[in-house]
Amino acid sequence: MPINFKYITGVPVVISILVAIYSGINYASKLTNIIDDNEKQIMMLKKDVNDNSKNYSEAREEMFREITNLNNWIGRVEATAKTVEKLIYETASRAELEALNNSYYKLNDSIRQMEYDIKAVKDGNY
Length: 126
Fold this sequence. Notes:
Elements lengths: L4 H4 L1 H114 L3
């Protein structure tokens, strides 16, 4: 049986085609694995994003509650400050009134004493 060279020259072409097909299938398989891995990572990232969104919402609600409590506390402090200010003014007004009364009585006593002194000088008891 003689070897037909015509078919032997086709062997490298067939081998090249088979290698190209194998390389293409291998490349497609690797791409499929990479896509599957990336899909898993995307799913995990989506879960993380959902968890972070939930945590963000909870933190925002907690901050809103804290700010509301802070506003209430500031309102109570302001009301207390106004009450203290009013009491200070009332106390100051009472103190001023008492000081005026004391001045009046001292002045009244001084005038009386002066009247007695004038009367004593007139009567010659001095």
